[in-house]
């Protein structure tokens, strides 16, 4: 150690020795510069100017923040917190409410005083007397800011400020947000009484497990109303305000009890409990009882999330307005479909096994009405308790569609350009272009020539690419665009025939595209919302008139359906076909690198009847050598899709297709043609025999005439 210190001193001495001549050289210049700056500063009174500028900046910022506070609709905050936006299904029946950060609202006199005492003792001791903010609190926050090296770590906020943050602001920890919070708290304190403020705060607070508000929290954890909560239970509930997950009594009872006891001591310090009362409360066990029922609330999280996203992106309303202004939002939701689809996703037996590290195979699905384009049901993942406005794979993923792209990019434009459902396609291993793109069929088996309907049903790659090359890539690009999917330049090549896209698609997009086939060639505009009515009864959005675009003729749509019926009758989708129903559509999958082993990255089935289209995807969120799907789509997504359709189809109108599968049609036409030839042969023979008999009869008559002539002489 001594040697190290000696070396350290020598190091700094060497640096000092090196810098000494440099400092000696610049010292006179530095002193001259400093004298000039000092004279300038004194002569022009720069200190006063600096103070004036800072005061003007402070005044400007204060004026701006005051303006924001005055225009933040604080006067309607209480009413907004009590009002829920209601979601209605396609039958105009109530499906649920967009509670988001709202629970069952209860008045001040229906909240136990013990809850109020526990919260004020812990979160804001001066609540009943402060002006909405606390100087001491800001001082503590400033010290914390220094301790945490310039990071805002929270703290210092009164209950009024927390209400402003939860109800009117984001959760970001920034200086701007903290400043807005302060001015909003002052405004809230002017408009409302302290009883109103603590009531709004407790009804708007988050208590974990998807529960907002003190009433629902009391039912969730203790099976009673908020008015019946005692001091020990109040302290347990207050503990969750610090960290709803860490101090959750269901998941972490020991942590909850530890903080509960600390809060009871704080209540003693704040003269809300006596020491003996606190000690008695500490001895109480956690008697948890869950009586909370969210049936009438955020019932279908993935669907409701998608509704909110559509309101924001398509109609320009803010999330705050959607949740707080008491709208009535009418949608295409079919609650029966939704419940059936959710039940399928809850059945882990139909999904592939988890990865070795326990990671689940994810999935997403969309059911759509092909006549209107309205989304009837949606599941965005296998999480049974999705996060509010969390990741919705049904609308947000961008994954390679595999062979489900073939009907859109290849076979539809081919029919439009003179090919027929039974046209013979080349099925050979060929290379294309300067990069020698070489598609291969599964197992490297090729038939030389194959009818189009068979190439589609068997999902053969070589004929699909050959056909796209024949009609031209740009015709395929335009066709895909007509189906509602715009491809970037990087994807405008022969590989798109097999769904080898860089950007990818979502189940929502694929359901909208395939609805075109079920809707006789017209692509309906995909949507969730049909109408929005504000709290005053004014219709602010009317989407009840279905909009659609003609993509192909009804005849070609029927031909495509005929070919895609074969996918489930004798093609790659036979294992996915629900018993007793005719369905049309396409399977698809994307391969993983050979080094991973035999398997796929994405598996798809997009299928339909005249009544419903269902697009389903499964795969891992992140694919690598340890996270990929074993086998092919027949062994994975087929079970999921079949389960969905088996559950949904019995509840539909069960409308029949107006065509048979292409293979059956082709066989019937061949039989008819053969029968026609044989009939022609028989007709020819009959006519020949009749002609021969006629000629024989005429010859006999002539001979008899000749004999009569000679006999008469």
From TrEMBL:
Top-rank taxon, per record: Bacteria
Name the Gene Ontology biological process terms.
cell wall organization; peptidoglycan biosynthetic process; proteolysis; regulation of cell shape
Point to the regions of Polar residues compositional bias: 667-678
**Keyword set for this entry?**
Carboxypeptidase, Cell membrane, Cell shape, Cell wall biogenesis/degradation, Glycosyltransferase, Hydrolase, Membrane, Multifunctional enzyme, Peptidoglycan synthesis, Protease, Transferase, Transmembrane, Transmembrane helix
A GO molecular function held by the record: peptidoglycan glycosyltransferase activity
Looking at the UniProt record for this protein, which Gene Ontology cellular component terms does it annotate, in alphabetical order?
outer membrane-bounded periplasmic space
Record's keyword annotation contains Cell division: no
- Any Pfam family hit: Transpeptidase
Stretches that traverse the bilayer: 12-37, 49-69
| Catalyzed chemical reaction(s) | Preferential cleavage: (Ac)2-L-Lys-D-Ala-|-D-Ala. Also transpeptidation of peptidyl-alanyl moieties that are N-acyl substituents of D-alanine; [GlcNAc-(1->4)-Mur2Ac(oyl-L-Ala-gamma-D-Glu-L-Lys-D-Ala-D-Ala)](n)-di-trans,octa-cis-undecaprenyl diphosphate + beta-D-GlcNAc-(1->4)-Mur2Ac(oyl-L-Ala-gamma-D-Glu-L-Lys-D-Ala-D-Ala)-di-trans,octa-cis-undecaprenyl diphosphate = [GlcNAc-(1->4)-Mur2Ac(oyl-L-Ala-gamma-D-Glu-L-Lys-D-Ala-D-Ala)](n+1)-di-trans,octa-cis-undecaprenyl diphosphate + di-trans,octa-cis-undecaprenyl diphosphate + H(+)
The answer on whether this UniProt entry bears the keyword Transferase reads yes
Q: Which residues form a coiled coil?
A: none
Question: Which residue stretches belong to region Disordered?
Answer: 659-680
- UniProt cross-references to NCBIfam families, sorted A to Z: PBP_1a_fam
PANTHER family (UniProt xref)? BINDING PROTEIN TRANSPEPTIDASE, PUTATIVE-RELATED, PENICILLIN-BINDING PROTEIN 2A
Q: What is this protein called?
A: Carboxypeptidase
Q: Which organism is it from?
A: Loigolactobacillus coryniformis subsp. torquens DSM 20004 = KCTC 3535
